[in-house]
Write a structure and sequence with these properties.
- The protein is mainly alpha-helical and 349 residues long.
- It has two domains: 5-109; 114-348, Orthogonal Bundle (MetI-like fold), CATH 1.10.3720.10.
- It is built from 14 helices and no strands.
- The chain has helices at 5-54, 63-95, 109-116, 118-149, 155-163, 170-180, 193-200, 214-240, 244-252, 257-268, 270-285, 289-294, 304-314, 318-348.
- The longest helix has 50 residues, at 5-54.
- The chain crosses the membrane at residues 12-33, 68-90, 128-149, 161-180, 217-239, 260-283, 322-340.
- This is Carbohydrate ABC transporter membrane protein 1, CUT1 family.
- InterPro entries: ABC_transporter_permease, MetI-like, MetI-like_sf.
- It is found in: Cell membrane.
Amino acid sequence: MNFDFADESPKLFMLLWGLVAFVAVVGGLLLLLDVVPSWFARRREARLIAATAGGAPLPRQRKPRDGLFALFFLLPTALLLLVGLVVPAIRTLLLSFMDGGSQNWVGLANYRWMFAEDSIVRVLINTLTWVILVPLVATTMGLLYAVMVDRARFEALAKSLIFMPMAISFVGASIIWKFVYAYRGEGQDQIGLLNQIVVSFGGEPRQWLLESPLNTLLLIVIMVWIQAGFAMVVLSAAIKAIPADIVEAARLDGVTSWQMFWRITLPSIRPALIVVVVTLSIATLKVFDIVRTTTNGNYDTSVIANEMYNQAFRYGQNGQGSALAVFLFVLVIPIVIYQIRNLRQQREG
């Protein structure tokens, strides 16, 4: 295949202008963040020098100026949130009450469709399964890893190996596990690790990703494999932060390792456990890459994020896709509120 620069020049120029605009915006923001504080600092220093030389009392920094200074830094973030989050959220909410072509209002028809269509109900059940199993299993495995490798001889190496899947993208991890689940007919050499193990024990190879609901559980394994390392790192840090005097006092009282875990370790790391479970729950609700890469949502494996993409971009049903997006947003809100309240209670306590 030949590449013609003349035919592709408009796209190349568009890409070039995009890069220039990106450099200009980011460079401008970095320049402002460097110049403006220095300018304020020089003005403050000049006033101090002038006041000291004239014998006058040192000027006090006025609060309104502090407010303007803070507003200068908050304004770009507020604008980005407005353009990138608030406006799209409002538009998506409005589209969820319209038909597929975004021309006519249909009221709550799209939301009734979500709970009346059998295939979408299957999607909701799959998503619920993901949200229940992934945080529970990944947190449990992360806690188990953290306790087992804590102060072990090869702790650094073990943690590095366990955390390594976090460095792989969801797409990359999905491709790896797709090879693990790969299938070839009987009598052929199996390239999939799982089928090879089954055949080695005298079993028959199976098309794992085609069998529902087993295929959903196998996709959940990928997410757990990735996120267990994150849970381990957070919980391991929390375990190491337990005061040594508490641990020594418990040992002097003659508690067993099992009692130490349930009565000392687990209560002490409860805030970290909540953070891990909340973070994994939100990440699981938004899962898209794994399902898209492995099964494309076929064979009853689709989840809300994947179905939202299908409805809006593949089938041209903007209203139904937007309704799924709004429903996903509604599911995330209680988790975020709980985390905010939990952090506030920890701060006040």
